[in-house]
């Protein structure tokens, strides 16, 4: 096995999720294909789409149980880690795009980090690892 290719993120609406991940976080839309059951296969990826990264499969909730998990897929813990090579640049761009940061940036031995939430409330780390 070589890598984790996709991680599913349950969302309320495909188009609002695509807008958030592409416009606010700067991801690229890698796939958006209709499926026979009326759903869509929607994949967004950070960066330029170079091989080796992990994409997000944006899956619209289909049941009450799934709708109840939107925004709480990891029980309130940080569940997603977005690495950057320029923390200050990306933090400023994301803040200007309306991304909600839950704390001020901090500098830890492992790197510069700040927790933010996506449009549904899932917690993410924006992280520039230490050299």
Characteristics:
19% helix, 3 helices, alpha+beta, 131 residues, single chain, 4-stranded mixed sheet
Textual characterization of the structure:
- With 131 residues, the protein is an alpha+beta fold.
- The protein has helices at 14-24, 64-67, 87-96, and strands at residues 6-11, 28-34, 40-45, 55-60, 78-83, 100-101, 106-108, 111-117, 123-129.
- Strands 5, 6, 7, 8 and 9 form a five-stranded mixed β-sheet that branches. Strands 1-4-3-2 form a four-stranded mixed β-sheet, with helices on one face.
- The mean pLDDT is 94.
Distance between the termini: 27 Å
Task: Give the overall silhouette.
Answer: globular
Number of helices: 3
Structural class: alpha+beta
* Average residue-wise pLDDT: 94
A few lines on this structure:
This protein is an alpha+beta fold and 131 residues long.
Helix-strand layout with pairing:
Blueprint: E1 6-11, H1 14-24, E2 28-34, E3 40-45, E4 55-60, H2 64-67, E5 78-83, H3 87-96, E6 100-101, E7 106-108, E8 111-117, E9 123-129
Parallel strand pairs: 1-4, 5-9
Antiparallel strand pairs: 2-3, 3-4, 6-8, 7-8, 8-9
